Each structure stands twice: as structure tokens, then as C-alpha cells.
Amino acid sequence: MSELQKHYKGIIAALGENPVREGLLDTPKRAAKAMSYLCQGYEQDLRELVNGALFESESRDMVVVRNIELYSLCEHHLLPFIGKAHVAYIPTGRVLGLSKVARIVDMYARRLQIQENLTQQIAHAIYSTTDASGVAVVIEAQHLCMRMRGVEKQGSEMQTSAMLGSFEQSDGQRQEFMRAVFRA
Is residue 77 annotated as part of the catalytic site, yes or no? Predict the structure, then answer.
């Protein structure tokens, strides 16, 4: 039995349940496997993930990838937050393979997180990987720690943003990004 499985068995017992009853017998194993999957971002490396998927391009126009679904775990309560990321960058001679943008989002989301840090981590990873003149990231998410416990506000949604380089300096670029993401 793995260390993680032992801890889950202990948690089940501490909650007052019988960890060896039929319905819970394999739960520590399944929970450990699920948590390992949900936190696999710790085992990933940005350079290995990108794997050279940077391609020469003369494009200097904004590249926007909208509605990248994400799932993460709140580092305060270990409860999920679920949402979508919108990512943009201004290339300077190289573009990033499209799937790599989503993989970068996943790599950082698959860690114990707070949404504010997740947004910054994605932005800085794309900025450093692409040498873009600017990067913008907006994340919209629903937090189960806010919906299932505490204040229990079902309709609440959190939005965070990170603007780097030209997006930080140019109101026009920021507005163009926001219009592309939040089309009316």
C-alpha cells in the first residue's frame, strides 16, 4: 500500500467510517490514484512539455486561444475549482504549437493552487517560452470551496488576469484581447 493510500485510509477512519467495509475497501487506492493524476503537474517540466514546438513565423499579430478548460485543486481546502483560461500572445518571430498552450495551462492547473498564482504562472511560462512581446491570460473559474462549504454561494465565479509586456503597457492591446475573449 502506497504512503498516499495509507493516509486516505486514515482520513476515512478519522471521519468515523469503517475503511474496510465493502464500499470503502478500495477507496484509499482509488483516491490516491485520483490525487496523483490531479497533481501530475508537479512531475512535468516546461521545456520537456514544449519539446521544441516553436515554429518560425512572420506573424506579429495577436494569437488568442479561448476557452481552454481547466481543473485544479484549491490549495487551502483541496477542493476543485473548474473553469476556463483565455490566453493571448504577440509573437516575435516564433509561434507556439497550439496544443502546447493548452498543455501549459494543464501543467500548472494540475498542482495545488490558488487561481491568482495559476494565472501568473501560465502567463510567465508562455512569455519566457515564446519570447513574445506580450502575453495576456484571463481565467474564469467556479470554486467548490466557495459553493460547497463556507458561504455556499452557488452563482459565484472568480476572474483573474495577468498582463505582461506589451499587454501591460498598451491599453489598446489589452482592449483588443478582452474584445476577442468576451465577444458580445
Answer: yes
* Structure confidence by residue, pLDDT tens digits, 28-87: 999 999 999 999 999 999 999 999 999 999 999 999 999 999 999 999 999 999 999 999
Cα 105 to Cα 26, 92, 110, 123, distances in angstroms? 31, 21, 9, 9
The yes-or-no answer on residue 124 being catalytic is no
* 26: phi then psi, degrees, rounded to nearest 5: -100, 5
Residue 75 carries which side chain, given as an amino acid letter? E
> Which residue is catalytic, options 5, 86, 113, 115?
115
Which residues have CB under 8 Å from 43's CB, separation 6+?
none
- Catalytically annotated residue among 75, 116, 157, 168: 75
Strand runs labelled E in 126-169: 134-143, 158-165
Task: Give yes or no for a contact between 136 and 171, defined as CB atoms under 8 angstroms apart.
Answer: no
pLDDT computed for residue 150 by the predictor: 86
Task: Tell me what percent of the residues of the chain surpass a pLDDT of 70.
Answer: 99
- Is residue 142 flagged as an active site residue? no
To the query of whether residue 39 is one of the catalytic residues in this protein, the response is no
In the chain, what are the domains? 3-38 (no CATH), 47-181 (3.30.1130.10)
Mean pLDDT, the chain, whole residue set: 96
Among 167, 160, 108, 105, residue whose Cα is nearest residue 138: 160
